[in-house]
Amino acid sequence: MMINSKQLDSESPVSIFAVNKCYVTAQEGTFFDGSGFAALVREGYKVRSDVNITLEFRTRAVHGVLLGVSSAKVDAVGLEMVNGKVLFHVNNGAGRITATYEPRGTDSLCDGKWHKLQANKSKHRISLIVDGNLVETDNPYIQSTSADTNNPIYVGGYPADVKQNCLTSKSSFHGCLRNLMLTKGQQAELFDFSRAFDLRGVFPHSCPQAEH
């Protein structure tokens, strides 16, 4: 950029605010800068008895919220990374149960490479598949089968004034997410982050290439 034939020095500005670098190479995906979240389905998402959540993520952080849907009561589902593990929490109203995927190395999922995750709730049963590895957990509350939510889906974090009954972490996700899909029965919905009703610290459709 030049003004009156004089080159502007953009490398050493007098002040800078909310300006990110351009990346030489970018990948398909949505970039979460670790400060915020994406809020989807303003009218409320009903988890009820069955839901299958699939997504791909890439991060170098060992902590971070992936996804949460919570009612004002206790009913909720949540996906998060804690100490390099992936946790899938479900509360159908009787108590929280958790399926935990623990990789061999603490940094295995935080290596900056893409990892595929599938979290399934079918009535009182829950399972988690990370990179093809299946984890199931017993649920003592077999009579309770429905997570009665009617609240937005928060991805990558959530606002301070929003209650999330199935998340233990408050850390926003730092990295990239793509191909978020929630399936109920035969109905699959692929979520486009650019259509979120609230986006903070989230940059849809562009993910900086992993630095070597």
Question: Describe it for me?
Answer:
This protein has one domain (about 35-200): Jelly Rolls. It is about 0% helix and about 50% strand. The protein has strands spanning about 1-5, 5, 25, 30-45, 50-60, 65-70, 75-80, 85-90, 95-100, 115-120, 125-130, 135, 150-155, 175-185, 185-190, 200-205, 205-210. The strands form three sheets. Strands 4, 5, 6, 7, 8, 9, 10, 11, 12, 13, 14, 15 and 16 form a 13-stranded antiparallel beta sheet that branches. It has a two-stranded antiparallel sheet with strand order 1-2. Strand 14 and strand 15 (about 185-190) form a beta hairpin.
Level-2 CATH architecture: Sandwich
Shape: elongated
The level of helicity is under 10%
Compute the separation of the termini in Å. 30 Å
**Extended strand count:** 17
Helix and strand element order: EEEEEEEEEEEEEEEEE
Report low-confidence residues grouped into runs of 5 or more.
none
Strand content: over 45%
CATH class: Mainly Beta
Kindly provide the radius of gyration, computed on alpha-carbon positions and rounded to a whole number of angstroms: 19 Å
Question: Biggest sheet, open or closed, and with what strands and sense?
Answer: 13 strands, antiparallel
- CATH topology, by name, is Jelly Rolls
With helices defined by DSSP (H or I, 4 residues minimum), what is the helix count? 0
Report the mean per-residue pLDDT as an integer: 92
Domains (count): 1
Structural class: mainly beta
